[in-house]
Amino acid sequence: MFNSDYLIVRRGQEFQVRISFNRPYKPATDTFAVEFVIGSSPQYSKGTYIPVFPTKERQSSWEGRVVDAADLTVTMGVTPAANCIVGKYHMYVAVKTPFGIRRTRWDKSQDLYVLFNPWGPDDAVFLDDESERQECVMTEMGIIYHGSYDDIAERNWNYGQFNYGVLDACLYIMDRSDMPITNRGDPMKVTRKASAMLNSRDDDGVLVGNWSGDYTYGVAPTSWTGSTDILLTYASSKMPVSFAQCWVYAAVFNTFLRCLGIPSRVVTNFFSAHDNDGNLKTDIILDESGRIDRVRTRDTIWNYHCWNECYMSRPDLPTGFGGWQVVDATPQETSDGMYRCGPASVQAIKHGHICFPFDAAFVFAEVNSDVVFYTRSKDGSLEPVKVNRTHVGRMVLTKTPGDVTRRDITDQYKFPEGSTEERTVLEKAEQYGCGRDKSDLPEADVDLVLPAMEISVGDDFELSLEFVNRSGERRTVDAYINGSVVYYTGVTSSEFLFSNPTVTIEPNKSEKGVLICFLTGGNLKKGDAELLLFFCRCCVLQVSNGGKVNEEMTATVEFTNPFTFSLEGVYIRMEGPGIMLPMSKYYR
């Protein structure tokens, strides 16, 4: 399949070399070896110099045998070790003579590439499913899912792992990373190093990320259609390529993995949490007006996020945690000092083993994080007002092997919401340091319904809100409604709406209201990756159980300090005609 002039083989699998001598080969007296060399200072002890002998009596880590010997030609079968270094080897023939060892000169045309072998049972990337192997190693065209979980869109992508020059570009990435040659046979080390090298942060890797909407000095992420241009440009220019967002990182990483023979697929997680502070919760902080406090809110929820899964054994983990592993080249947070993520066992994530390497806790938060909303008072204290335990990780998709349909693999990452298994997993994750919010907040009996809408760029529109009172009493609601233009990563571009209506709702009734939103084209001028996000917070003004004539009742009254400093020596005076005589309260 490779568009290449060189021999390309997979480790753990025999290939044949035909050698021409100047006289017939005599097994009893003639001694020769086929030598394979990789790296700048080959050594037998490090597996970078491998002599392969034709007789069973003398063998190295690579097996050799004479398949056929006729006239002046010997055909030799060579089987690279199933755990050998992956990369480009030089090949020589060495002959023992009365005058010492004589070997052929280096001939570029006799170089060969050795790749990982998912067909080889002894290889760490062995995948015992032919349809998955064909899809995740051999298939060059793919589909990447994006959009929203209830409005899924598709991008076609040409991975092009067999295109001319791509294999050399992938090997150059490992060379550029200064990865020791001896580590290049271990898929764990290769994928972890590559997840750092596919982004340009801290190591001048392949792709420059850009979520600003301004792509003046590069190619807009939405304009790429395949990986080939990106990889060949990086290999030739020796400079990072501009620009990428998460699906571009995942697509090019997919090409790298498939090209080297590691089974891989692009995965999309809808409502993906980006935990900035490592507490495995998504903390949304609201200011006194009801707006999201953009300065203090560091965690975000991406509408979707793309990463990769690659298939390998995990001898460093207990039995059962091999198989699909999450790797992510999008630079979100550092891991061991570099912007990279994985490989993290999908099984470990599903079962709450967030202590396992590498970065299982971060990925666990991406699919399981609780969204906790806090109100922040002037003195800086935070009080939880709402916890949503089911919003994050709503759906995880990848392409179906051998088909152009999508495949829902959410159940590979998590047990059903609210199930006994899910509670057990979350309890286990807590034992390993997953900080969950234990607030027992009362369930609200007033709901706010916002419609899902599709709006054309530049159109004005109506936002129809419905307040639903499920209680048997009248409710008065202070509502804070905010509309913003946001990127798919949850980052705000601009705010175009803020409204603070007060609504009275009769018992077991609903009230509808319409807000006219003036959305000029200027708000969406960067619109390639933006959404409209409406955020609403409602505070119910409470009294105790309603009032009855001649019976005492209580009312809760809140005062907000409008200043940035604490108030001292404050008298509060209040009265209500026909309800309450004048009263006062002193606060030191």
From TrEMBL:
Its cofactor is Ca(2+). Keywords: Acyltransferase, Calcium, Metal-binding, Transferase. It comes from the Eukaryota. Binds 1 Ca(2+) ion per subunit. Residues 238-331 form the Transglutaminase-like domain. Its EC number is 2.3.2.13. Pfam families: Transglut_C, Transglut_core, Transglut_N. The active site is at C246, H305, D328. Ca(2+) binds at N368, D370, E417, E422. GO terms for molecular function: metal ion binding; protein-glutamine gamma-glutamyltransferase activity. GO terms for biological process: blood coagulation, fibrin clot formation; nervous system development. PANTHER family: COAGULATION FACTOR XIII A CHAIN (PTHR11590:SF42), PROTEIN-GLUTAMINE GAMMA-GLUTAMYLTRANSFERASE (PTHR11590). Belongs to the transglutaminase superfamily. Transglutaminase family. This is protein-glutamine gamma-glutamyltransferase. The gene is f13a1b.
